[in-house]
Structure formats: C-alpha cells, structure tokens
C-alpha cells in the first residue's frame, strides 16, 4: 500500500523530522520558515516551512511515543483479548511513562478494498501476481468504495 503522508499541521506540532540522511529541527528563528534542515554528515543547511516539509515527504518525529489500541491488545493478551482491567492498568502505566495509547488508524478505502480481495482470494484459492494492493489502488482511483468507511451511505 502507500506510505503514510503527513500534513503541514503534523509538522506544526512536531519538534523534529527526519528524511534519508537529513534531520529537521523546528527552532522558530524564522517565523516564515520555522524548520532548520541539516545533513547528518556535512555542512548542508537550509530552512523550510511546515507545508514544504509535508510536500517533500519528510516524516515528523512524534514528540510523544504512541501505541495503537490493537498493538496494546496484542502485546498484553497475545491476541486473546480478555480482561479490560489489565488493559486499563497497563494504559495507566504507559501514560505515566509518557506513552499515549491512540486509536487504531482508520484504513484507507484502498486498504479496505485490498482486505476484501484477500478475503475472497483465500476462499476460492485464486491469486493475483504481485498481490491485490495494485488492484485495490486502481479501484480506489476509479471511485469504487469499500464498505466500512466514513464515506458509506
């Protein structure tokens, strides 16, 4: 599937960013271009805006570590999913450590389409060379909507 892309708002909330062998630091020395970009090895340096960081496909470094609800459930229960009390205790402990438990990301329409196709593929044992992702992305671009998203009517 496609890599996660970030918005200018994501960079406005971040203090650091990374891409290849470069690092970005939000230093606010220049209000119009709050990011200082430096090469890890070498003397290269430049400045960027939040929008430029997003457009150039940088990755913001989260100021606070997170774990998704399903990752937490899998880690605690090994997939068995019992005892909310254990989850609540671990969640409170993670919070004290500065780790936030966040909702699972909402899958994109293309990801939901691919999941449906993999489910169908498993039932009739057919397969598509290269996997279903490219077919799902094609269908998504063509306007096909998978059930289970915000755009259901």
Walk me through what this model shows:
This protein is of the alpha+beta class and 153 residues long. 39% of the residues lie in helices and 18% in strands. It has 6 helices and 7 strands. The strands form 2 sheets. The chain has a 5-stranded antiparallel sheet. A two-stranded parallel ribbon has the order 6-7. Strand 2 (22-26) and strand 3 form a beta hairpin. The radius of gyration is 20 Å and the shape is flat. It starts with 7 loop residues before the first helix and ends in a 12-residue tail after the last helix.
Identify the notable features of this structure and list them briefly.
7 strands; 153 residues; two-stranded parallel sheet; alpha+beta; 5-stranded antiparallel β-sheet; 18% strand; single chain
Main sheet: which strands, in order across? 4-3-2-1-5
From the helix content, strand content and strand pairing, which structural class follows?
Answer: alpha+beta
Helix-residue proportion: 25-40%
Low-confidence stretches: none
């Amino acid at each position: 599937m496609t890599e996660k892309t970030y918005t200018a708002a994501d960079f406005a909330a971040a203090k650091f960013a990374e891409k290849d062998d470069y690092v970005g630091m939000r230093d606010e020395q220049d209000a119009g271009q709050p990011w200082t970009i430096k090469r890890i090895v070498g003397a290269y340096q430049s400045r960027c805006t939040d929008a430029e960081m997003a457009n150039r496909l940088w990755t913001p470094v989260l100021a606070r570590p997170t774990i998704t609800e399903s990752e937490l459930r899998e880690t605690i229960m090994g997939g068995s999913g019992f005892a909310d009390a254990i989850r609540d205790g671990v969640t409170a402990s993670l919070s004290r450590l500065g780790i936030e438990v966040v909702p699972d990301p909402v899958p994109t329409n293309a990801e939901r389409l691919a999941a449906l196709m993999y489910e169908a593929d498993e039932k009739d044992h057919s397969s598509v060379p290269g996997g279903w992702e490219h077919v799902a992305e094609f269908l998504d671009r063509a306007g096909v909507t998978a059930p289970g998203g915000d755009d259901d009517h």
